Automatic annotation (TrEMBL):
Substrate binds at P163. It comes from Sphenostylis stenocarpa. Binds 1 heme b (iron(II)-protoporphyrin IX) group per subunit. Binds 2 calcium ions per subunit. The active site is at H66. Residues 1-24 form the signal peptide. GO terms for cellular component: extracellular region. This is Peroxidase. Disulfide bonds join C35-C115, C68-C73, C121-C322, C200-C232.
Amino acid sequence: MRSIMLKFIATVFAVYLLNQNAHCELQVGFYSYSCGMAEFIVKDEVRKSVRNNPGIAAGLVRMHFHDCFIRGCDASVLLDSTPSNTAEKDSPANKPSLRGYEVIDNAKAKLEAVCPGIVSCADIVAFAARDSVELAGGLGYDVPAGRRDGRISLASDTRTELPPPTFNVNQLTQLFARKGLTQDEMVTLSGAHTIGRSHCSSFSNRLYNFSSTSSQDPSLDPSYAAPLKRQCPQGNTNTNLVVPMNPSSPGIADVGYYVDILSNRGLFTSDQTLLTNAETASQVKQNARDGYQWANKFAGAMVKMGQISVLTGNDGEIRTNCRVVNSWQ
């Protein structure tokens, strides 16, 4: 009898643990009952913003990436700096290049008006990235939700957790592996550079004084480098100067990025380096040939990236204002 009772208790405990784990997992349709209009409200705000400024789509995709790679997808990238702390958004990796904060603020304000204290800022960022991909011509995808917001944001984290544009393929592979992403997913997600723009400072090292033997990066197509030099003069200090990352279709989520790399027109070292490794070069060629396959892979990789070290259950909080932690904590 004692044996049967012990087995029964063990079974009940196992079911309890299973339910606890299930509770902590992200779920598609997480807000179906608590705030049924949540995803629609976010998408409407993103749509209006992209209509007024198509470049915002790229900014919101990049925001999700920069959020997830530091402390997981917890909206830490949205927190403002305080007198005693410099937050992620004010690090050189994010300022002045990261944009779209006002889109998240507007969506959050509307959600708080109809569903106060329900929808996390982290989920809004994930929804907005998905909507941006779709509005740019990519594939839409279901976003598992249930993330909660973190309370810590340190500019110093960006130096070790975000890949700079100077990384080579081995450094990129290692960094993405630390986040649980494969090399193939790294190449796939790099395709986000198909939309958006870059400040000159992110690639000017390839144009001037590249090495002791070459003033210009020899892996950069000279006919592409020439207009880049005109747009980004040597010694320029104007932080407002930007160029499209994929000149042929800067507002469309297509495989032009991979076509450019095969033509030695990858803007960053971290783009062109994908041809220096046999496996990643093969993936670049496959993606360049099959836009639909890449779009599918990209959607899947975005979903996986969106689950990096998420806070769920009772961890973290649901911020009332995405820029500051709740005052009652």
